[in-house]
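Justification of computing resources. Each target in the renewal requires a structure prediction run like the one illustrated here; the chain below, 318 residues long, is used simply to show the kind of job we budget for.
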Amino acid sequence: MRSIDIHAHVTPQSYISAMKGGQVWHGVQPEPLDIEPQLEWTPEQRIKDMDSLGVDVQVASTGAQFYYYGGDAQAVAAMHRECNDEVHQMTIDHPERFRGLAQIPMQDVDLAIAELDRCVNQLGMVGAMIDDKVNGKTFDEPEFLPLWKAAEQMGAVFLIHQGGGTLVRPRTRSYHLPNTIGNLVDRAVTFASFVMGGVMDACPDLKICLAHGGGYACYGVGRMDRSWDVGRLPQIPQPPSAYLSRFYYDCLTHSESALRMLIDMAGIDKVVFGTDWPFDMQIDWPVSWVLGLESLTQDEKEAILWKNMEKLLGITSD
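Resulting structure tokens:
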């Protein structure tokens, strides 16, 4: 059984070295290093862990803590180039085991397009991982439309993954809720912004993957549809639920019933394998978890684990 993981993170070794050496790194001041031990592993060590989990390919993305959308755009663009070059080197050294998602400086759309173009068209990366917002702005803002158009033309994939505080955090920081609930809230808002803001109508071939199973998008779309029914969403030609199948979603629901609902509402061809490696909210033994789900057929399991990702990324297997 083959598997391709779209949701696996990297911490730049150059950042780790700088922090350990007490050096400034692209404006980031030296600080005590506090990361998951696996993030210091070499690619070879990482591959051994992938083998133990049954993961054949990781689509590696530099962690969300390196978005830095609030920083100077030129400085952050340089940081992101270094991050992306490191991920690219992983894909060169181990082409059968890694693909790459870029970091791009979203606070400057022109710079973001330029780095995405470099990474996709020169380095062969498959797209970018981005936050749900940019300094408080959602992705229906007109300033982002040139990026969506450019990405559509490139065939680039965006993995949407929160960074920093979620919408839950201003209300409570207790019980790990900014993560467990907040991630899902943010993703539902992002779904709504892309749909209700007309982005998905303007860019019919845009490839968006919503991490963490799309958050509450599927569960809450009935209420969004009601808003459309009563005339509060005249700007879109179809109810929001009609757009569910326009997105991709990773399988990171931690719940078989939630995953079953996602499949039934968005379509099995839109659900892909994602693990959140190597953080504590990852799926333990992720391939085994998918294979053990009694409500999924064998064809559905294979679609999630590798077939949908091969189609999405243009990867061919022997």
